[in-house]
Design brief:
342 residues; mainly beta; Neuraminidase; four-stranded antiparallel sheet; 2 helices; globular
């Protein structure tokens, strides 16, 4: 893998890392980390708690609860323009879910929404998609996979999601499959998991994460903190090289993160909840975010050197055991044509 031109190019730009960080509260931190380790932050505050937070290419989506009603909202974190999105139907946010996507071929943003009806055992129904472009409207989507239902999943078994290479992906360990939604074609399909995981997904002993790396979907298998509280380890990391033929390649095996100089190891030992590490990529490196509530760390892994570096994030975040880290993207898309500005 190191011989691939991407990994062997030693002249790749060492641009600063830049992230949008959220922790299920009312604010987002925009964090810039220079290669020398120095960081600076700026904060964007919102009037209400952001529920079911999503981020895609500089646009965030969330539910705002007002008088018991769930309202789907969008915000551009570059322009700080925010709207309540006009729903497809009057009932579409009742028992609803959504995802944000970016169509890399047309450079357009899309919003996908669906409901789960109690009288149908919470199977997905009434699915719609809309392009964030002037003159567009909601369009129905058919053949929604039943595996996308969430209400009956324990929290740690709910589908993991990611947008990569013009598609939305959901890892559904309980069903031993990956579901994808082609953003350009607006079609669902299923994707087989790596051969090692065929009928062997164990979400009690392992944690699974998906993220995008250089346009490709990656899947991480990580021993859970309940199974091994002394280390943070990447057990297996696979990349989906060919979605049409379900071709996965192995990128990493049994890679330990260096926890020396942090309080993470002691923190894992003291806490009973399953530990969540957030995986993403930027500047050709894999990034793993972790927190002990007081300090927030991002570990970067270089395929070229095979080494980890650690960045500590400073700034006030809510005192919870996980936080969401996304790559910051500057975006000037106007949202005012798609709903009510607030």
């Amino acid at each position: 893998m190191i011989q691939h031109p991407f990994f062997s190019n030693k002249t790749r730009s060492k641009a600063p890392f830049k992230w949008a960080i959220h922790d299920c509260d009312k604010s987002i931190l925009i964090v810039t980390a220079e290669q020398n380790g120095s960081t600076k932050t700026e904060e964007i505050e919102y009037p209400d708690t952001m529920w079911d937070f999503r981020y895609c290419n500089g646009i965030i989506g969330f539910y705002s609860i007002e008088k018991g009603s769930y309202n789907l909202c969008l915000s551009n974190i570059t322009t700080v323009e925010s709207i309540e999105l006009e729903p497809p139907t009057d009932e579409s946010t009742d028992g609803g879910h959504f995802e944000l996507a970016f169509d890399s071929s047309s450079k357009k943003h899309k919003v996908l929404v669906w409901r789960e009806c109690e009288d149908s055992k919470y199977y997905p129904s009434e699915c719609y998609v809309r392009t964030l472009e002037e003159g567009t409207s909601w369009r129905p989507v058919s053949n929604v996979p039943q595996a996308l239902r969430r209400r009956q999943h324990p929290h740690h078994e709910r589908p993991q999601f990611c947008c990569a290479n013009g598609a939305l992906f959901w890892f559904i360990g309980k069903e031993h499959i990956m579901v994808s939604f082609n953003v350009a074609r607006e079609q669902f399909r299923t994707v087989k998991l790596p051969q090692k995981l065929s009928n062997m997904v164990n979400e009690k002993e392992f944690r699974y994460s998906i993220f995008e790396f250089e346009g490709y979907l990656c899947l991480v298998e990580q021993p859970s903190s309940a199974h091994n509280k002394f280390n943070l380890e990447i057990g297996n990391l696979w990349m989906l090289k060919d979605i049409e033929n379900n071709v996965w390649v192995t990128m990493l095996n049994n890679k330990m993160l260096p926890l020396e100089g942090t309080n993470l190891r002691n923190y894992f030992l003291e806490e009973d909840f399953p530990f969540d590490a957030i995986f993403l990529s930027q500047n050709g490196e894999i990034l793993i975010a972790a927190t002990d509530e007081e300090q927030k760390y991002i570990f970067s892994y270089s395929f070229l050197s095979g080494q980890f570096k650690r960045i500590e994030i400073f700034g006030e975040l809510g005192g919870i055991h996980h936080f969401r880290v996304n790559n910051y993207v500057e975006n000037y898309l106007s949202l005012e044509d798609f709903g009510w500005v607030f």
